Amino acid sequence: MTESLTFASPLTLNNGVTIKNRFFKSAMSEQLSTKALLPAPSLAVLYRAWAQGGVGLIVTGNVMISPDALGEPRQVVLERGADLAPFEACAKAGTENGAHVWMQLNHPGKQIPKILNKKPVAPSAIPLGGGLEKIFNTPRALLTQEVDTIITRFAESAALAKQAGFTGVQVHGAHGYLVSQFLSPRHNQRTDKWGGSAENRMRFVLELYKAIRKAVGDDYPVGFKLNSADFMKDGFSDNESMAVVEALAAVGVNLIEISGGTYESPEMMGRDNKAPVKESTQRREAYFLEYAEKVRSRIDTTLVVTGGFRSGPAMNAALRSGATDMIGVARPLAVYPDLPNRLLNDHEYTVSVKRPTTGIKIIDLASALDIAWFEQQMHRIGNGKPVKANLSPIRAAVGSLITTGVHALQKRRA
Hints:
The protein has 414 residues and is an alpha/beta fold. It has a single domain (11-352), classed as Aldolase class I (TIM Barrel), CATH 3.20.20. The protein contains 14 helices and 13 strands. It has helices spanning 41-52, 85-94, 144-164, 178-183, 198-216, 238-251, 279-284, 289-296, 312-321, 331-335, 339-345, 361-366, 369-382, 393-404; strands at residues 11-12, 18-19, 23-25, 57-64, 76-77, 100-106, 121-122, 140-141, 168-173, 222-227, 255-259, 302-306, 326-329. The protein has an 8-stranded parallel β-barrel with strand order 3-4-6-9-10-11-12-13, surrounded by 6 helices. The chain has a two-stranded antiparallel sheet with strand order 1-2. Strand 1 and strand 2 (18-19) form a beta hairpin. Helix 1 runs parallel beside helix 2, helix 3 (144-164) packs parallel to helix 5 and helix 5 runs parallel beside helix 6 (238-251). The longest helix has 21 residues, at 144-164. The protein starts with 10 loop residues before the first strand and ends in a 10-residue tail after the last helix.
């Protein structure tokens, strides 16, 4: 317990880089690229709003390493030969007011809607289950040399992010995307050095980190977002997750963000419609705090817990317990971009963000309303408009359709 620690306290990473406070803006789906898959001007405006709103560390939405590996339409891509000017504008805006802005790098693996890629790749040729096979095609198993190429692409994108002025990078290794697929015994059934044993399934993560570290240097912050578990009986377990966390800590990763779930079991989307949880868990608010406490007993690397935090007292209690070093917040910042400033001015402040619904489940699912409503708020911020907290869920669904066209009807996840 550290009684004096609050979300206003600065944080120094294990490479000596200091972040001004403990507010961590976790990645969200933004849908703000140009037709060329470069950052739209509104994206820089959005990052500026969060920086001026008091966030200590902003993590961008998914930036993909290849244009043929989009998890959603209108995602930003950073690859060799890309025009860096719009990325530089985003980095400049995101570092205003003393904030850090890290680029989240990702490859979706098999989690590419059919409309975007007819033959996605994955560690093994295993389709998604639970009805998702109707939306996502069965993938082709990656060839050995293709695995090496993907690792190289991640490293190239990281180097370009540094060149553009981003103050760090985060690899998305959670939520069932490619990195998560390599770690999962459910989705990785390879018989070469990249699969089989837990040690082999971990190899992709470690080689990815090594390649990125070589590309950006020893002092540049590199973080990973990892699942605490897949929440599926034959998936990535919490014990396996802890082994990966320990391995990344041992090689020097600078920050680990804890999340959980996949498209097949979307625990990361919240618990509004799930079975009641223990009263003690409700009081603590965060979804993955108990797991983080177990991890903290094993490593000293900076930890971030994202999901569920809504009140100042719960945030400060989590920090003082030592279970997390930063407070990860996502959806509330799409509605209250100045939330950190509000909390810094009033440590008792509590924000309420309800899950949007049209009242008709099939419409909510078809329009990906749980994502689209918050995207529309971010689009308003990016266009210099005030947030509309009473935005009609129906209008959000229609707005999503207008923004992304027929692709908006595909299953989506942040």
